[in-house]
Design a protein that fits this description.
Helix 1 packs across helix 2, helix 1 crosses helix 4 and helix 2 packs across helix 3. This protein has 296 residues and is an alpha/beta fold. Strands 3, 4, 5, 6, 7, 8, 9, 10 and 11 form a 9-stranded mixed sheet that branches. Strands 1-2 form a two-stranded antiparallel ribbon. Helix content is 43%, strand content 22%. The termini are far apart. The model has no long low-confidence stretch (mean pLDDT 89).
């Protein structure tokens, strides 16, 4: 069986127009070419697609069944061709992006929408992970990009561009012991259990850890749930509270009296400079750089 795209287009057009001659006019062909194409298709399929007894061909039940799937098949064939062309010009087969879990509220999907618009054939995979795990994915090649907080020291093979600022805030349930104080001393923080977002690798010490006793989780949603249950205090994205006003009724932002920890960070788009970049990766990097340049 050797069925090509042109045969399917002719078959679809005959079904839609109701005759060989009308299909020929629509496709810019002579009627005999359309008739011969349908005849060859019937031979290839070993099926009778049209009854030709009357003035116009009448579709058989088999033809109507196949017609229902023809349009989708043609769409998939066109997508396959477009994807093949894109791959031949350097488009990645897939783009893996790791987003630090606390940054899921920072409108990062704007960049994904931009990539989808520019490269509709591109397969995009998004992974949410703690900061340390996102970095490991980048180093290992499991992700081509990581959206993560700024760090004082980068690995030698990492490169980045700043995107925006993001703020974190220390919070506790309003009924939690720490929340009963207008300001909190460092000794009180040390003695209160902290719910900290940390790597799944237990050998890696959590960032933003202040308490002697702590529980760890790999995402801020479960951290928030534990904090809401009076099981400890923790650091959550300010944007998370702004997007969900209900949380503000249950959580109190804590005021540290003895010191002012850094809770505002630049958000960076980070990539491995030693990895080969495809068309989509280069486009995103150039877009972010131009966006930053135009902002100043």
């Amino acid at each position: 069986m050797n069925i090509n795209q042109e045969q399917l287009i002719i078959f679809k057009t005959v079904m839609e127009t109701g005759s060989f001659s009308a299909a020929a006019r629509k496709l810019g062909k002579v009627p005999s070419a359309v008739s011969m194409s349908i005849a060859n298709l019937e031979i290839d399929l070993n099926l009778k697609l049209f009854k030709r007894a009357g003035r116009e061909p009448v579709p058989t039940a088999q033809a109507r069944t196949l017609f229902e799937k023809t349009e989708q098949l043609l769409i998939e064939m066109n997508q396959w061709k477009q994807h093949a062309v894109a791959l031949s010009t350097g488009l990645e087969s897939a783009l893996n992006i790791a987003v630090v879990s606390e940054l899921l509220h920072t409108h990062w999907t704007d960049y994904i929408s931009l990539l989808e618009h520019q490269f509709p054939e591109l397969q995009i995979n998004i992974f949410s992970a703690p900061q340390e795990d996102a970095q490991k994915m980048l180093i290992s090649g499991a992700a081509q990009f990581a959206l993560m907080f700024e760090r004082e020291q980068l690995e030698s093979n990492e490169q980045f561009v700043e995107l925006k600022r993001a703020a974190l805030v220390p919070v506790a349930s309003k009924s939690y012991a720490l929340a009963q104080h207008a300001s909190i001393r460092f000794e009180q923080i040390l003695q209160s259990r902290q719910i900290v977002v940390a790597s799944r690798d237990r050998t890696i010490k959590p960032e933003l850890l202040y308490s002697k006793t702590y529980w760890r989780t790999d995402n801020h949603h479960s951290a928030c749930a534990l904090i809401m249950q009076n099981l400890g205090w923790g650091v959550l994205p300010l944007e998370m509270l702004n997007e969900n006003p209900q949380l503000k009724h249950h959580l109190k932002i804590l005021n540290f009296a003895d010191f002012t920890p850094k809770f505002e960070y630049f958000v960076d788009l980070v990539w491995n400079r030693e990895s080969q970049q495809g068309a989509a990766a280069r486009f995103l990097i150039d877009h972010v750089r131009n966006q930053r340049k135009n902002a100043f």
